[in-house]
């Protein structure tokens, strides 16, 4: 298993469109750049992002990312039909029951993935040396860090 994978979010999510969900199984830490706020123009991207986060969460994959907002802001324009009845229609609004019901789970998972508990679960599965650092630094009230390693973009191609 490779330690780090760095991806542009558009490349990664287009790659997932083909059903290739093994990326989180190949890397225990994934860095994504430029996660957009989801709207009517990028609805398919939102679906693929949800799938990616679900797979990463199940594999206890660590996510490092840059995004255009916090987890709730990324899904602000997505709502169920029931939620949309109470709002004025806007062009960028996505009324989609599947995404509307799923967004709460994904927001919760993204929030949990930032927690110390998730970091501990990730370390237990993938990086025992980080688990030791978590324990040691918890006693001193500081945040542990892993040694810096080069993280360069890689091209995504179908996994065999």
TrEMBL record:
Keywords: ATP-binding, Nucleotide-binding
Superkingdom in the source lineage: Eukaryota
Organism: Cymbomonas tetramitiformis
Protein's name in the database: Uncharacterized protein
GO cellular component: mitochondrion
Pfam families noted in UniProt: AFG1_ATPase (PF03969)
InterPro entries recorded: ATPase_AFG1-like
GO MF annotation list: ATP binding; ATP hydrolysis activity
């Amino acid at each position: 298993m490779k330690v780090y994978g760095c991806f542009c979010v558009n490349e990664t999510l287009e790659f997932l469109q083909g059903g290739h969900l093994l990326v989180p199984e190949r890397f225990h830490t994934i860095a994504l750049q430029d996660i957009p706020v989801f709207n009517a123009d990028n609805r398919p991207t939102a679906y693929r992002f949800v799938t990616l986060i679900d797979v990463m969460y199940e594999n206890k994959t660590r996510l490092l990312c840059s995004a255009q907002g916090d987890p709730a802001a990324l899904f602000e324009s997505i709502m169920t039909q029931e939620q949309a009845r109470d709002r004025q229609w806007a062009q960028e609004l996505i009324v989609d029951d599947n995404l509307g019901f799923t967004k709460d789970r994904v927001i919760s998972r993204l929030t949990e993935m930032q927690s110390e508990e998730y970091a501990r679960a990730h370390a237990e599965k993938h990086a025992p040396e980080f688990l030791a650092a978590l324990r040691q630094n918890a006693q001193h009230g500081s945040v542990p860090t892993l040694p810096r390693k080069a993280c360069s973009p890689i091209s995504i191609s179908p996994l065999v």
